[in-house]
Specification:
Blueprint lengths: L2 H23 L3 H22 L5 H8 L3 H18 L4 H4 L3 H30 L6 H11 L4 H10 L5 H30 L13
Helix pairs in contact: 1-2, 6-7, 6-9, 7-9, 8-9
Length: 204
């Protein structure tokens, strides 16, 4: 499977997902696509378990892609730029303190909460112990909210106060930065062999 074929297939799946959401789920576009994507991912997991050889070509091609460069240096920039186009900085300038606390301390707390829950659930769900620092990395990945999704929800909601919209929209814009910093710090600890420096007993 070539890169072009994969790109075309992803475009077709995105179009079908949008239609399915518009026709049946009727959720805000960003949320609907996320839900449909999660369902498709679960279906793929089941299919891979049943017919693993069918996905070998796609696996080898995806394995050759450096997702660190693709996500951090390519996709994330476009995502934040698109989100910034919808953000009114004159509205958020009066709430910078709240935005900073939520996008920094909030992401740190969320990282440890999600990481700890994953660490506690791993022996039950996958019957295998997972290093706590790997769970924290998962927490850092899932902690930041998607600004495009936030703007899509607020666009369809008229009952949310403007103050809340401004704070959450600003937080959604800036929390990615802190999440990336936390992710890279944790990743550097793993690479350097110092993952034991994070002791889960302190937080559990």
């Amino acid at each position: 499977m070539s890169e072009y074929s994969l790109f075309v297939m992803l475009c077709v799946i995105a179009a079908i997902s949008s239609y399915f959401n518009l026709r049946f789920l009727k959720l805000p576009k960003a949320i609907g696509l996320t839900v449909v994507s999660a369902l498709i991912s679960l279906m793929l997991v089941v299919l891979i378990k049943l017919e693993p050889k069918l996905f070998y070509p796609a696996y080898h091609m995806l394995n050759s892609i450096d997702f660190k460069i693709l996500v951090l240096k390519v996709l994330l920039g476009y995502l934040l730029f698109a989100a910034a186009m919808h953000l009114n900085f004159l509205e958020i300038k009066n709430f910078l303190a709240s935005i900073f606390v939520l996008s920094s301390l909030g992401v740190v707390v969320s990282t440890f909460i999600i990481g700890t829950l994953c660490w506690l659930a791993a022996p039950i769900v996958i019957k295998h112990d997972v290093s706590y620092i790997y769970c924290l990395i998962v927490g850092a990945i899932f902690s930041p909210t998607d600004p495009i999704t936030v703007f899509a929800v607020f666009k369809t909601s008229k009952s949310v106060p403007m103050r809340v919209k401004s704070i959450l929209s600003g937080e959604a814009m800036f929390n990615d930065v802190f999440s990336i910093v936390i992710f890279l710090i944790l990743l550097s600890l793993v690479i350097s062999g110092k993952s034991d420096i994070v002791n889960p007993r302190v937080f559990c």
